[in-house]
Write the structure tokens for this entry.
Amino acid sequence: MLGNFTYCNPTKLYFGKDALCGLNEELPKYGKRVLLVYGGGSIKKNGIYDKVVKILKDNKKEIYEDAGVMPNPTTEKLKEGIERARKAKADLILAVGGGSVCDYAKAVSVSVHCKDDAWDKYYIRFEEPSCKIIPVGCVLTMVGTGSEMNGGSVITNHEQKLKIGHVFGENVFPKFSCLNPEFTYTLPKYQMIAGIYDIMSHVLEQYFSGEDDNTSDYISEGLLRSLIHSANIAVENPTDYEARSNIMWTATWALNTLVAKGKATDWMVHMLGQSVGAHTDATHGMTLSAVSMPYYRFILPYGTAKFARFAVNVWGVKPDGKTEKKIAEEGLNEMEKWMKKIGLVMNITELGATADMLEGIVESTLIMDGGYKVLDKNEIREILKASY
Ligand code: NZQ
Ligand code: ZN
């Protein structure tokens, strides 16, 4: 049964080959001082930086830069960014990059006018901002996280070996995002397929919760089928515009709060993956693929009917004459075959996890209670052992 909910997504999207022109519509709404936030330099190599700077200048903006946002942005970098934004007296933060850059921009946006320590307040105590928030806009260059249209912001604290996401409310969502699928063509294949699995995991972690006849589940199955179809094409031909644009659009819908409506939502694959990430600094999507099969095989007995539905509706498993359990298992087998075929990392050893990290990873895994089985630490340990 769908319970009570409110739904509002305030992010305005500009999608397609002309998406960057959206900046000309958006920039006049904000003051002169723009903090341009980006990563390690890919946007300088592929020309996106020059295009963005030209539009900023055409709109008579003063540009202040905060470069070098790393994948899995850290608390140290966040401190630096807060100082930069304060000095710049930024009226707008423009994030040009992937999920890391967008997440980081949101973290800075809620911290500039906040007196408390940002890590403790937002990522340990999960408080909402009580200060002025600097508006964030986004030009997306890497597809997967959905950060372009949600309130998520994930920060890594290497000292504490924790990687934690705060899902902020609507006031922290990007005000606008420009999504040009062509901007993703220069992504290394490893990042492209990591992003594809990140999308899949987002959908699955909302889909595998609750057993109701929920509209969200039908939408999710459609998103998954589109993703698998387009991923198969993009892996062969990374510049297939139709496939890349479908993947980009699917990523946005996978985590912009829509398919969570009426769902308890699981998120244990993300909790396991983030803990692996906190210890290895590995690529987000690959940390998810590496723990998924052991996790799903572990929880299958607690949600067999849904796994069987998934097998039939998403993977085309023929149900005739088979038990529900058999159908469900065949679905996971098909998924595993596909994951290997597109080149995902299937174990955490390959991501740099060593045996002596096991207890630390178990310790840093947050336990969520929305899935088919609330895990205890021993079960987390077993799943992680099976992921090595
Ligand atoms: O730093 P540069 O040089 O730009 O290189 C990046 C980076 O090395 C490169 N890249 C991005 N666009 C490119 C490109 N290279 C060539 N051409 C392009 N067009 O790709 C690498 C990865 O970028 P990153 O932003 O780290 O990837 P992603 O988008 O996967 O973001 C990962 C972060 O987002 C968090 C993750 O935990 C991780 O910290 N997440 C955020 C979520 C949210 N906001 O809701 C949810 C997700 O589950 C996820 O947890
Ligand atoms: Zn994710």
